[in-house]
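Customer escalation, tier 2.

The customer says the design service returned an amino acid string that "doesn't look like it belongs to this structure." They asked us to rerun it and document both sides in this ticket. The original structure tokens are below, unchanged.
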């Protein structure tokens, strides 16, 4: 197997139509932005529940040490790279991934789909008020769309009565898109555990609503394109993000380097040149 071999045999729906590559044993779909939009449109036509993950280095760091999270990621219906460093890591291993697609990009795709086809969006999570501010900005910049619901649950465990409250809201609203802003991995576990709600497209979006609301500033476009967004965010929230960026993410990049070294060593030992 070469470094660039796609992961066609991994668990998940519609494997025959997917081309994925592995970074530290975690599959990421190889699609451009248009391909992501087509895949999501297919989910809406097919019915049933589909989970989408937007992967940055933090996802890879968590997945490298948490088998349960790796299983969620590898069984998801769509996994897209959110972050230039993920594209770099894959390229270093010999993979060619498609475009970077962020949570905000997926929200904008959903808004456009709503405007064309009447589909509905439900936003779950983020700090109180941020969801409403994000919706107001989206309507101001992209035009009106069908909002199925908006709810910011209290901080803490989402079990018992609170879980039932959320289930009832979503069941009654019957959204086509559910965007969950609990942060990784909580949001992704939650979506996986609530697949029985039958939402056609559920996406974990981390801090996307905070960015759209303007409570967290987004790095300039030039910094995003050069993979320097982490430096901008670290300046804003050093206490919260220092360990993530300066310890966990550096550690996972070291694992990527070691992975390539091992693959090259194995190839040399076999005598096939990689």
């Amino acid at each position: 197997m070469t470094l660039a071999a796609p992961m066609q045999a991994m668990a998940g729906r519609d494997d025959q139509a997917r081309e994925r590559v592995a970074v530290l044993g975690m599959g990421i779909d190889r699609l451009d932005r248009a391909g992501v939009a087509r895949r999501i449109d297919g989910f809406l036509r097919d019915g049933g529940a589909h989970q989408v993950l937007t992967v940055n280095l933090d996802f890879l760091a968590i997945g490298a040490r948490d088998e349960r999270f790796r299983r969620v990621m590898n069984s998801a219906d769509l996994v897209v790279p959110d972050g230039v460093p993920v594209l770099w890591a894959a390229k270093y291993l010999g993979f060619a991934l498609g475009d970077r697609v962020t949570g905000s990009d997926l929200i904008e795709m959903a808004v456009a789909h709503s405007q064309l086809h009447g589909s509905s969006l439900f936003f779950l999570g983020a700090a109180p008020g941020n969801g409403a501010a994000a919706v107001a900005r989206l309507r101001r910049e992209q035009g009106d769309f069908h909002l199925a619901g908006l709810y910011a649950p209290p901080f803490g465990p989402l079990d018992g009565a609170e879980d039932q409250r959320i289930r009832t809201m979503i069941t009654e609203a019957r959204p086509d898109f559910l965007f969950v802003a609990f942060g990784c991995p909580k949001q992704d576990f939650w979506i996986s555990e609530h697949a029985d709600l039958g939402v056609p497209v559920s996406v974990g979006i981390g801090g996307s609503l905070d960015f759209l609301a303007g409570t967290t500033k987004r790095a300039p476009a030039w910094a995003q394109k050069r993979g320097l967004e982490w430096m901008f965010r670290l300046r804003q929230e050093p206490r919260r993000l220092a360990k993530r960026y300066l310890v966990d993410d550096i550690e996972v990049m070291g694992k990527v380097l070691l992975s390539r070294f091992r693959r090259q060593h194995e190839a040399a030992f076999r005598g096939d040149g990689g």
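Tier 2 assessment: The sequence is consistent with the input. The CA atoms of residues 4 and 166 lie 42 Å apart. Confidence is low (pLDDT under 50) at residues 1-16, 265-269. Sent an explanation to the customer and offered a walkthrough call.
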